[in-house]
Write a structure and sequence with these properties.
By secondary structure, the protein is mainly α. It has ten helices and no strands.
Amino acid sequence: MTERTVNRAEIRSAPVSAPLPIPAGWARIAFWACVAIATAAVVRRVFAIFIPPRSAPLQLAALDAYFSAHAPLTLVHILCALAFVLLTPWVLVWPGRIAWPERVIYPLGAIVGGTAYAMSTHAVGGWLERSAVLFFNTLFVFTLFRAYAYRKKGELIRNQEWLLRSIVILLGIATTRPVMGIFFATSRLTHLEPQQFFGVAFWIGFSINTLAVEGWLQTRARHAMHSVNA
């Protein structure tokens, strides 16, 4: 043991040889589930735009028509988001193997954030969904900017903490899908339309991811402080 006390700033600013990975266990399972759901959602939306399904349920068909009416913006947003999501394993699960994915993630994230603001003007769920998009998209852009700023400074631990935040926040769109599925499945009982529950689903899904990543980072920081001071 050492008698020297190391403060939190020293721990976070210390150089590291590899990025901060997602730990094994439930966190990694949740990460891969979000990647799979996000990928499936994008693929389904692309097919719905170019090859509209002929026998979709009424509510789903209305959503397909809604997004098809804004096809160019929708495609730019979801395809850049898909590229972002597919690169995240190289940053969080297999860190250090290839360097370029993290460099590409920053401009992709900027496009995703910008187009999300533009798409919020046509929010299906009205102001409730728009408020969720504006809040969490701003949080996503802010965390991504902080990650990039720390990367430029060479503070790799802080860079990876903020990059993890931004990635998990963006993956909140995947967490919204099961929530929406519950609303769709119970719509015959609740009589709720997508315009009524989309905003609620967005707030629930993105909140789950944001709180989960923040809780994990804070727990990790406390454990690091305890180990250093032991």
